[in-house]
Design goal:
By secondary structure, this protein is mainly alpha-helical. The chain has one domain. It contains 14 helices and no strands. Helix 5 packs antiparallel against helix 9. The longest helix has 29 residues. The protein is globular, with a radius of gyration of 19 Å.
Length: 311
C-alpha cells in the first residue's frame, strides 16, 4: 500500500525561497537535455550505446561522490539497507532511459521520438494523482493538454494530417520503453524519498545504474565495437556533465520541492528549445508552427506551475 507523503516531502509554501528557485530552474532542464540529442547524433560509429551510457554515469557518479563522500559515508547504513531501490532507480533512469534513446535514434525518426516521449509527462501527471495522491487541478490538466498539443504542433510542423502518415518501426519500442521508464523513475524517486541530499542521492543512483549497465557494456565491447578514442571520451565527458550531473540533479531537486507532475512538464519544452537553438546556432529558420506551438507549450507549462504555486 502506498504510504502518504510525509511533511518533509510536501512542497514548501509559495513564499519559500526554495519554491521560487525551483520554479526558475525547471526552465533550464530542457536546455541541458538538448546536449544529449547532439551527443546521440555524434555517437554512431564513435561509441556504442551502452558503453556511452556507462561511461557517462560512471564519470557523473564519481564527480558527485567527490563532493558528497562525507555524507555518503555517514549514510552508509541507509544506502546498504535500500540498495535495491537505488538499483531499480539506476536501471530506470540510467540504463533504460540512458541507452534506449541511443538505440531508438538508429531506426526511428525525430517525429516519432518526440511524439512518443511526450507521453511521459502525461503518465507522470496521472501517476502522481493516482499513486502519490498529489492534487491536480482542472487548470493544471488543461495545461497538460495544451502543452501536449503544442509539442505535436511543432513536431508535425503545423500539418496535423501528417500524424496519419507515421510509420512505426522497432526503434519506437525503445523510445516507448524510455518514456515509461522515465515516468517510473520520477514517481519512484518521489515515493521512496531519501535522507540523502539531492547530489548524494544522485551519486548513489549513478552507482546503481553503472552496476545494471555493466554486463551490457561488457557485451558490446566483446563484440569489437569502436575503440575508445579522444572523440568518444569527449562525448562521455559532455554527457556526464550537462545532461548528466546538472540535468538530473536539478530535476531531482526541483521535483522534491514542486512534485513530479509540474517538473515533468519541462519535457514538453524540448522541441521548442531545440527549434530556438537550431535557429540561433545552426541558422535553421523559425516558422509559424514554432510560434503557435511555443505559445501552447509555454502557456501549458505556465498553467501547471502556477497551479502548483497557488495551493
Amino acid at each position: 500500500m502506498t504510504e502518504p507523503l510525509s511533511s518533509a516531502d510536501a512542497a514548501p509554501p509559495a513564499a519559500h525561497p526554495k519554491t521560487r528557485v525551483a520554479q526558475l530552474l525547471i526552465w533550464v532542464i530542457p536546455l541541458l537535455w538538448i546536449v544529449n540529442s547532439v551527443i546521440a547524433r555524434r555517437a554512431p560509429g564513435v561509441i556504442t550505446p551502452h558503453v556511452l551510457a556507462i561511461g557517462r554515469w560512471l564519470l557523473a557518479g564519481t564527480i558527485l561522490a567527490a563532493f558528497t563522500h562525507a555524507e555518503l559515508w555517514a549514510q552508509r547504513v541507509h544506502i546498504r539497507q535500500h540498495v535495491w531501490q537505488y538499483l531499480v532507480l539506476g536501471g530506470c533512469g540510467m540504463w533504460i532511459c540512458g541507452a534506449a534513446v541511443y538505440f531508438a535514434g538508429q531506426t526511428t525518426s525525430v517525429m516519432n521520438i518526440s511524439l512518443i516521449y511526450a507521453a511521459s509527462p502525461v503518465m507522470i501527471a496521472v501517476g502522481s494523482v493516482l499513486w502519490l495522491h498529489e492534487p491536480f487541478s482542472k487548470r493544471q490538466a488543461l495545461g497538460v493538454v495544451g502543452a501536449l498539443a503544442g509539442v505535436v504542433h511543432v513536431v508535425v510542423q503545423g500539418e496535423w494530417q501528417r500524424l496519419g502518415q507515421m510509420e512505426f518501426v522497432p526503434g519506437d519500442l525503445w523510445i516507448a520503453a524510455a518514456a515509461v521508464s522515465w515516468a517510473a523513475y520520477s514517481m519512484l524517486q518521489k515515493h521512496w524519498g531519501s535522507p540523502l541530499s539531492a547530489r548524494a542521492q544522485l551519486a548513489v543512483i549513478c552507482a546503481g545504474g553503472v552496476v545494471v549497465l555493466l554486463p551490457f557494456a561488457a557485451w558490446e565491447l566483446s563484440q569489437g565495437g569502436p575503440a575508445l578514442g579522444g572523440q568518444a571520451l569527449l562525448l562521455i565527458g559532455a554527457a556526464a556533465i550537462f545532461p548528466g550531473v546538472l540535468a538530473y540533479w536539478i530535476y531531482g531537486w526541483t521535483q522534491s520541492v514542486l512534485g513530479p507532475g509540474p517538473v515533468a512538464m519541462t519535457m514538453y519544452l524540448g522541441p521548442l528549445y531545440a527549434a530556438v537553438v537550431g535557429w540561433l546556432l545552426l541558422g535553421e529558420p523559425l516558422a509559424l508552427h514554432h510560434l503557435v506551438g511555443g505559445v501552447l507549450i509555454l502557456s501549458g507549462v505556465g498553467l501547471v506551475v502556477a497551479g502548483k504555486r497557488s495551493r
